[in-house]
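Could you help me review a protein record that somebody else here produced? What it holds is a sequence and that sequence's fold in token form. I have pasted the whole thing underneath without changing anything:
=====
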Amino acid sequence: MFNIWFPRNKASIWGTILPRFTKKGRTFWRDMHAFWFSAAILVLIATGLPWSGVMGEQINKAATSTNTGAPPFAYSWGEKPESVIKTRDVAEEVPWAAENLPVPPSSGGKYVPISLEDVQSISENEKVAKPYTISFPQGEKGVYTISVSNPNPSDDATLHLDQYSGTILSDVRFSDYGILAKAISLGISLHEGTLFGLANQIIGLIVCLGLIGLVVSSFIMWRKRKPKGKSGAPDGSKNKKAARGVFFIMMIFGVIMPLVGISIKAVYLLDRFVFVRIKPLKAWMG
């Protein structure tokens, strides 16, 4: 659709990037189906990937290996920290970029743990933005974790405190994030509709309605153009170079997003080995 409807001059911008609401019938539905929502949909997908089970973990690994995620000094208490627990295992409402930070151990059970009031006082002294979450130590070497994951990522903070002395073992703020962690944190806030308030939510609503409209307009366009008794599916591409290009793009997305890859494989196998063996369905597929 991109190369078919991409505007080639100023006049043809109508019907491609901007729909022609005055048109009727198939032209109207074609315009509604054009790619003017593509950029917004791409952003919506990209900002949702860090939450996905497979891709999200790979993004985390990429950020760590390139030092563009959590800052290296977050691990400064030792080359081989005794604690291998991750922040997300001991605290709730943790910023995305700080979820996988190792939790440093407290000094040991020789002292009386500090009180919750002491932790709150430390939070105030360190200018931690409200509202924040305080997670209690788990075990003798556990730590207090103060975390902020507000709609505005610039307020993000993750602090680990020694439960006995109150010493700040780790303090990571948004300004400490690497470029990838900053971009993803902002993207998550944009995806959730909290980055710039009501306007963000309205834009998200428009994109969601656009996705629904895309599906509905696709069905209507198909119904209008398909021959009687057939599906109206187009013939295979005669341009082998273009077909190979599309194939490799699909494979790349299939690797990046495994569920997409599984869907592609399922459709291919059905089309290649099942549909062709059912005569009525084969005739209908044309």
About this structure: Residues 75-82 have pLDDT under 50 and may be disordered.
